[in-house]
Design brief:
Chain lengths: ~400, ~375
């Protein structure tokens, strides 16, 4: 166990700190992907790209900084930005899921064309996987495409499409061969949201806001070369994307940050004149969660070390989403509880009220449920942990009739 | 940065596991459990042979001068095999007590004896360790009197170390005429829980601690950390057995592990248990190298791993069906070990309350 960082890493940490001290006030308030990035966010993004704090390991020819992968460096950068409460850059499905997918399985042309504008925040993507009849059972998608005059012609419906209302492009999973079996007949296409025949209708979520959409596709025509890998490889590509999606969810650093916010909240709020942090019932809940967050945090450090040594983490990595999303939910639940009646105040429509503490916690708390479901629900994660991580036998039906979103 | 065990620690772990696997069959365990002293002389000799008994003792006093992270690695292995040995008091807490409360001469006299396995010490506390009974002990000159319950590792102890409330420690020969030991079987037959009555027993007084309160806290926290590691090992064993069993046991023409209720229970257990190991490692490392975090980490490690341990113990027993409830598999030894670890030196609620104090979240 050696938790010290070598001189090179300490120097990087200093450098990032100096950068944040000098430029931090130009940061947008969040790096979140629930809205299209504004000018401030785009300017900040450009600065981060120039300095190599974003897209550090993406090749220069694709608009990145072109350094070799060093997970410690990435962790230090992420850590400094999150500690300072400064945006670490734009986060959305294009950047966190499509870009690594293209780097892993896309063609040179696709990488050259899409990665640069995506990481600069100019092109926003949405994920066209789920359908009304196909969520956990992702390979059951019915949206289909046939070839006509060198183009795919797509028809079908997607649902729960986050960001579709402001996205420029969609990565879409659809059926291109009806006779090649459930998994063999799928393809992964990149399609412009401006194409004729695409209609996006907002879908109101339990938060009261339209965070995702229904997307209808009627005779949408896209060139065949917009396919990632080959026609029929869609299931493989979709799994690559899902892998990156899972890595994103349940992040222990975010938990530590949220815990700090709950502690701060509990020092300020009071019940019959006593700070909630001193009330035994609430305090013990907080302490239990603190134990969980600490365990997750050090588990994350362990994974980081394993990754830097190129070791397989197996089941240890697979548990992160399940564990992290649940702890996040329990933290926001505690925050809502200690706010008492004041915590019930909720005005989802007024944008300005996003600053309101109660509303923020309520929205987080509900959104956490979304994260427990999205990207593979907790039950599906448990199947993955059991089967892939621990070698338990598969569901008898899963081999034949259905396949899970993995 | 390197978060994980060193090569030496991995070697230590694998050689100890090999040794225990070879020595400690379930039949042997049953036999020792039947005796109820929590001590098996041959196993003890084995630990001495592996250099483990003296490994916290500094080299110039005949030990190996290793750190608490090494102790955590060993404790996890001992817990994995429900090893009946007085490790906690004699190997971990007693040398730490001597090192902070004893004078140079006292250390020179006693530490080599601990390191060689020649003396075995139990540890008793008047307070500060989450006791629920009413303990008291006092010195008149160098004569110790009083009554102490909930004492660790007294089953085969040659000496007892008592941490007194006045900031001193008293070292007493367990066979002194002024000492009566009452060794009770505990729920965990691998470790008895004893009481001592002292009536003017001859004591060697250890009063060289620079800050006695802080030193006592450190000894107890080190004990908590070792208990967390022990629980982790025992829970990991129960998990491994349940995982194997669910792949083998067939009902309704299928391995039970293919049923989702079973599979999901196992996935939940893995999700609870895996992060505990990183927590224990970090907490141990904090004892060695991060003094400002040491306290809170030991408290959280003890509390959190105890909670997880209880869940693992219950659910893995349940996953074995009726077999889990019988004495045939002996799984209950692990269940009871986890239960013992949970209650001793402060149950989770007590540890969390202490953690609140450390962070200033508790008035007074
Ligand atoms: C906030 C949010 C954002 C999303 N964003 C997008 C997006 O941008 N693009 C996109 O394509 N999709 C998106 N989704 C959809 C998401 O991927 C699906 O909701 C998810 O995969 C679950 O599918 P489902 O909703 O059809 O639930 P179902 O599959 O119908 O599942 C219903 C319940 O049954 C359980 N279940 C199903 N199958 C099994 C099984 N084999 N074993 C045990 N339990 C099972 C599930 O765990 C769940 O509890 C989003 C969802 C949310 C909540």
């Amino acid at each position: 166990m050696d938790l010290s960082y070598g001189p090179r890493y300490l120097a990087l940490r200093e450098e990032v700190r100096d950068f944040i001290k000098q430029y931090g006030d130009q940061s947008p308030r969040t790096g979140g992907g629930r809205k299209r990035p504004d000018k401030r966010a785009l300017d900040w993004q450009r600065l981060l790209l120039q300095r190599g704090y974003f897209a550090r390991t993406i090749p220069k020819e694709y608009g990145g900084f072109g350094l070799p992968l060093d997970v410690m460096e990435l962790a230090i950068i992420a850590d400094e930005f999150s500690t300072a409460g400064v945006s670490a850059g734009i986060m959305n499905q294009g950047i966190s899921m499509l870009v690594p997918t293209l780097l892993e399985v896309g063609s040179r042309e696709q990488c050259a064309k899409w990665i640069g504008p995506t990481i600069r925040g100019e092109v926003i993507w949405c994920q066209g996987y789920s359908e009304p009849g196909s969520g956990s059972d992702l390979a059951a998608v019915k949206t289909h495409a046939y070839v006509d005059d060198g183009r795919f012609v797509i028809n079908g419906q997607k649902i729960w499409t986050s960001s579709a209302h402001f996205a420029d492009m969609m990565f879409l999973l659809c059926r291109t061969d009806a006779d090649k079996g459930k998994h063999g007949g799928l393809s992964y296409l990149l399609i412009p949201m401006s194409a004729e025949g695409i209609e996006v209708r907002p879908l109101i979520t339990m938060t009261g806001r339209a965070e995702f959409n229904e997307t209808f596709l009627t005779n949408v025509r896209v060139p065949i070369d917009q396919t990632v890998m080959q026609r029929g490889d869609g299931w493989h590509v979709a799994n690559v994307t899902s892998k990156y999606e899972r890595l994103l969810l349940g992040d222990p650093n975010k938990l530590a940050h949220r815990l700090a916010r709950v502690i701060e909240l509990m020092r300020r709020t009071s019940l019959i004149g006593v700070p909630t942090i001193e009330i035994p019932e609430y305090r013990d809940r907080l302490l239990k969660l603190q134990g969980e967050v600490l365990a997750s945090k050090f588990h994350g450090l362990r994974l980081l070390s394993e990754q830097s040594r190129d070791e397989e983490s197996g089941v240890r990595r697979l548990i992160v989403k399940l564990n992290g999303t649940m702890i996040a939910y329990r933290l926001s639940s505690l925050a809502v509880d200690v706010l008492g009646a004041a915590g019930l105040s909720y005005e989802p429509k007024g944008e300005a009220l996003e600053d309101d503490e109660a509303t923020t916690w309520q929205i987080d708390n509900m959104y956490d449920i979304g994260l427990i479901i999205g990207g593979g629900s907790s039950n599906i994660q448990k199947n993955i942990i059991g089967e892939r991580g621990l070698g338990l036998p598969r569901e008898p039906t899963a081999n034949t009739k259905s396949a899970q979103k993995v | 940065m390197e978060f994980g065990l060193s090569n030496e620690q991995q070697l230590l772990e694998s050689s100890l596991r090999r040794f225990l696997e070879g020595e400690l069959s379930i039949e042997r365990l049953r036999k020792v459990a039947g005796i109820g002293t929590g001590f098996d002389a041959a196993l003890w000799e084995g630990l001495v042979g592996q250099g483990i008994v003296g490994f916290l003792v500094p080299e110039h006093f005949g030990g190996t001068g290793l750190a608490l992270l090494d102790a955590a690695v060993v404790a996890e292995s001992l817990g994995y095999h429900v090893t009946p040995l007085p490790f906690l008091a004699s190997v971990v807490m007693a040398p730490l007590t001597l090192m902070s409360f004893g004078s140079e001469a006292q250390q020179a006299e006693w530490l080599p004896k601990i390191a060689s396995g020649e003396v075995k010490m139990s540890m008793a506390f008047v307070d500060g360790a989450g006791q629920t009974g009413c303990n008291s002990a006092w010195l008149k000159g160098n004569m110790l009197s009083g009554h102490l319950t909930g004492v660790l590792d007294a089953g085969a102890a040659s000496h007892v170390l008592v941490l007194l409330t006045d900031g001193r420690a008293a070292l007493v020969d367990a066979h002194d005429t002024g000492v009566t030991v009452d060794v009770h079987a505990s729920i965990d037959r691998t470790r008895p829980i004893s009481s001592y009555a002292f009536s003017g027993a001859k004591a060697i007084i250890l009063d060289a601690a620079a800050d006695a309160h802080e030193a006592a806290t450190r000894v107890i926290d080190a004990g908590r950390l070792v208990l967390a590691a022990d629980t982790l090992g025992a829970a990991q064993f129960m998990f491994d057995r349940a995982l194997d069993y669910s792949k083998e046991r067939v009902q309704f023409d299928r391995a039970i592990g293919s049923f989702q209720a079973v599979k999901h229970t196992i996935a939940d257990l893995a999700t609870m248990l895996e992060p505990c190991r990183a927590l224990v490692w970090y907490a141990a490392y904090a004892q060695d190298a991060l003094p400002e975090e040491a306290r809170i980490m030991a408290l959280h490690a003890k509390a959190h791993v105890s909670e997880v341990g209880r869940e693992v113990a219950r659910l893995t027993t349940e996953l074995h069906g009726g077999m889990g409830f019988t004495d045939l598999l002996g799984l209950h030894y692990w269940f009871k070990r986890i239960a013992f670890d949970r209650q001793i030196l402060g149950a989770p609620e007590y540890c969390r309350r202490e953690a609140a104090k450390v962070q200033g979240w508790l008035v007074a």
